[in-house]
């Protein structure tokens, strides 16, 4: 029997089956008894918050961090170094296809998908218009955070038509970065202003694992993120930057480390969702990423005189746990003397290290590791902090961007350094730094005296974002500081140029018929718009 005959027969059987049904029965037949009547928006919101900490993959919290944050960004900006093993595309400028694809694919399919559903259901055509006002506006802030990182990593990305598959948009267009940033700033402005304690809660406080429904803190994050985005485009869109720096300051940015954005993690019930993905990437017996602190970072933290601890950055023995052997059962210190700390040079393999040192190098016994106190499986995951905000305010004053900023650039710089140094006590009380220690460090390197002011600000932004390497990579691309020496490992894919962006996933290039609108050429050295590239 041919296919058209089967189709006609099936239609006839169906008509006969319902011939005796009345209208109500026909209606009931058309309703799927298993269909979900409405989504639990509180669940979706919590999942979206976990998504920005798992960075795109609530199915595997270490996947994107390991491949993109650690492997590319952390090594490209020379805070980490790797002489072989694990994933470390940024150390020697090699290509890892999972590194390219991870953030793009998982972000659209995880937190942005959940946020799109929240926006749909709380909008005019949803089942809960107006009932979840604060959740809706907080979700807009989460959405702006996710999209700004996406476009920073790739350049042009689907934005205005993204996550609209339910509306029949299967091949979203790629949007210019200038248009994306303008809309992100508008979204942050509107969402931050609309958040209010007078809005109905509808479980928002229970769903919110970042601020527990504290609307004041959400508003301060929205305006602080606005400040970051405004400064990111300040070299290519100074008028836009000035407008939104002014709005951010007027709205009210972070005022202390109590405002820092932390997603609380836990050891269970699921190691794949609840545990800290950065920790899992490095934890022996789990990820076991064999990277060490880089020579660039350790030398910076040891200060101008490596022969004394008097001018050391207080973060030296916070970020470094020392030269140590770390197994799945034990952290065994080998040398915790600050003067003995040694970073691994970037761009070296084992044979090159042996030649450099003139001996067979035991990496574990030679180079400083990330402090294991920062890498426990239930460590909180930091998204943004007060120290960054103060440093951005210092930069805005130095460059004359925006208005309404009180105080001096030096005052904001000092506050930014102090907050950056002291925020690690949130991980472990033993990592607390006293006001006196901070004052001594600032006195050793007076603002605008030890170096010109702007390079000092930019270097402090770089070290502030340890763990938040993708954003530190963006800051370095924008500012050019610290002044890094590129590597030229044999067979690298950039001709010895530090990567400026990620390549798009191969599946996107093959599957989206609008891919010709994406940033081109699709190479690691093509600059994005705010980095001086084409829009």
TrEMBL record:
Looking up InterPro entries in the UniProt record yields:
SusD-like_2 (IPR041662), TPR-like_helical_dom_sf (IPR011990)
Protein's name according to its UniProt entry = Cell surface glycan-binding lipoprotein, utilization system for glycans and polysaccharides (PUL), SusD family
One Pfam family linked to the record: SusD-like_2
Coiled-coil spans in chain = none
Top-level taxon of the source organism = Bacteria
Sorted alphabetically, the keyword list is: Lipoprotein
> Which species does this protein come from?
uncultured Cytophagales bacterium
């Amino acid at each position: 029997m041919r296919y058209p005959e089967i189709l006609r027969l099936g239609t006839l059987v169906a008509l006969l089956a319902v011939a005796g049904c009345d209208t109500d029965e026909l209606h009931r037949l058309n309703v799927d008894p298993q269909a979900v009547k409405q989504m639990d928006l509180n669940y979706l919101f919590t999942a979206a918050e976990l998504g920005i900490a798992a960075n795109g993959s609530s199915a595997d919290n270490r996947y994107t961090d390991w491949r993109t944050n650690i492997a590319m960004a952390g090594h490209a900006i020379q805070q980490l170094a790797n002489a072989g093993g694990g994933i470390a595309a940024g150390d020697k400028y090699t290509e890892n296809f999972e590194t390219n694809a991870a953030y793009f694919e998982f972000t659209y399919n995880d937190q942005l998908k959940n946020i799109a559903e929240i926006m749909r259901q709380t909008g005019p055509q949803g089942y809960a218009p107006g009932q979840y006002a604060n959740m809706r506006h907080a979700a807009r802030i989460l959405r702006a955070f996710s999209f700004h990182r996406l476009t920073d990593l790739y350049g042009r990305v689907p934005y205005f038509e993204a996550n609209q598959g339910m509306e029949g948009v299967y091949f979203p267009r790629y949007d210019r970065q200038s248009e994306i940033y303008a809309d992100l700033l508008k979204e942050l402005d509107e969402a931050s202003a609309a958040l209010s304690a007078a809005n109905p809660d509808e479980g928002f406080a229970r769903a919110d694992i970042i601020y527990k429904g504290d609307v004041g803190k959400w508003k301060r994050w929205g305006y602080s993120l606005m400040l970051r985005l405004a400064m990111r485009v300040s070299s290519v869109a100074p008028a836009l930057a000035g407008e939104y720096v002014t709005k951010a300051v007027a709205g009210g940015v972070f005022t202390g480390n109590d405002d820092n954005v932390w997603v609380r993690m836990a050891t269970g019930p699921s190691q794949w969702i609840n545990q800290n993905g950065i920790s899992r990437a490095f934890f022996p017996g789990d990820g076991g990423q064999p990277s060490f602190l880089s020579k660039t970072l350790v030398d910076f933290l040891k200060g101008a005189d490596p022969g004394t601890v008097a001018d050391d950055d207080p973060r030296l023995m916070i970020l470094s746990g020392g030269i140590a052997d770390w197994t799945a059962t034990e952290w065994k210190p080998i040398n915790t003397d600050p003067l003995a700390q040694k970073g691994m040079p970037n761009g070296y393999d084992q044979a090159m290290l042996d030649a450099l040192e003139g001996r067979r190098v035991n990496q574990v016994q030679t180079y400083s590791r990330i402090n294991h106190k920062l890498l426990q499986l239930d460590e909180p995951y930091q998204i943004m902090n007060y120290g960054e905000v103060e440093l951005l305010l210092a930069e805005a004053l130095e460059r004359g961007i925006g208005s309404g900023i009180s105080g001096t650039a030096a005052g904001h710089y000092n506050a930014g350094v102090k907050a950056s140094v002291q925020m690690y006590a949130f991980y472990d009380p033993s990592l607390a730094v006293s006001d006196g220690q901070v004052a001594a460090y600032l006195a050793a390197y007076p603002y605008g005296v030890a170096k010109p002011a702007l390079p000092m600000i930019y270097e402090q932004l770089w070290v502030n974002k340890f763990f938040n390497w993708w954003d530190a990579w963006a800051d370095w691309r924008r500012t050019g500081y610290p002044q890094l020496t590129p590597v030229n490992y044999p067979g690298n894919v950039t001709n010895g140029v530090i990567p400026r962006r990620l390549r798009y996933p191969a599946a996107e290039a093959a599957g989206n018929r609008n891919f010709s609108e994406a940033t081109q050429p699709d190479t690691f050295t093509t600059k994005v718009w705010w980095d001086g590239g084409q829009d």
